[in-house]
Amino acid sequence: MPDQPALIARNLERSYGEGSSTARVLRDVSIELYPGRVVLLMGPSGSGKSTLLAVLSGLLRPDRGEVTILGRSLWTIRESARERFRLEHFGFIFQGFNLFPSLTAAEQLEMVVRWGEGASPREARRRVGAMLDQLGLGARGHIRADQLSGGEKQRVAVGRALLKNPRFCFADEPTGSLDWGHGEQVIRLLHAAARDQGAVLFVVGHDPRLIPYADRVVHMVDGRLSDEPASLEPTL
Ligand SMILES: Nc1ncnc2c1ncn2[C@@H]1O[C@H](COP(=O)(O)OP(=O)(O)OP(=O)(O)O)[C@@H](O)[C@H]1O
Ligand SMILES: [Mg+2]
Fold this sequence. Notes:
About 40% of the residues are buried. About 35% of the residues lie in helices and about 25% in strands. It contains six helices and ten strands; from the N terminus they run E-E-E-H-E-E-H-E-H-H-H-E-H-E-E-E. Strand 9 (about 215-220) and strand 10 (about 225) form a beta hairpin. Helix 3 crosses helix 4, helix 3 packs parallel to helix 5 (about 150-165) and helix 5 runs parallel beside helix 6. A six-stranded mixed beta sheet has the order 6-7-8-3-9-10, with helices on both faces. The chain is an alpha/beta fold and about 240 residues long. The longest helix has 18 residues, at about 180-195. It has a single domain (about 5-225), classed as P-loop containing nucleotide triphosphate hydrolases (Rossmann fold), CATH 3.40.50. Magnesium ion binds near residues 49, 50, 95 and 172.
């Protein structure tokens, strides 16, 4: 197991709003993420989990603090360089899935391999078919995203993030709208991406059944990270 963190975040602060309506969402958050390991971030709704994910992954600028990824300071490089870095190294699974409604499940995935990597149509079809099978969507590839169920969309989003074998995968509630059978399938895939490809997996989730698949569980408590849940946070 490599001992060097691939991502180091130091003293992150982030607020929304101004003046008396300012909400301080992140207060002095520091964390290190290691290749090959799954970190699960838990915490009540509105506690800042998606905000932290966005700051760590180059989508939302912190007010203060630093994120260093593979030795580069994510928030001091230019926007274009940050964008390239994200495209090259990051896979995302967002809370809202962000699929293209008029493309089929298979087309959403083929785009990643064909345009992202320049694979041939045949190679793209092969890899996409294998991924859809792994996600239990083998028979749904030809269905348009706007006709898929919430859980099917979610699994397509997971496939899209993992297909390019990213070095970092940021997943916001990747099992949120899935029954546990499919949820377990998804967390197993994410876990395998960490184990087999040495990816950094940063997963936001609230289901305690995810815990056994995590190498470390951290909790958002009053804008800070804690190894223990907030005392009032329900355990289920
Ligand atoms: N763009 C924004 N402008 C103003 N406030 C925001 C914005 N985004 C988030 N917030 C506020 O910041 C707080 C943290 O939001 P965030 O989305 O990070 O929470 P979360 O832990 O991901 O919640 P959930 O579990 O419901 O997804 C919330 O109070 C939210 O209302
Ligand atoms: Mg959220």
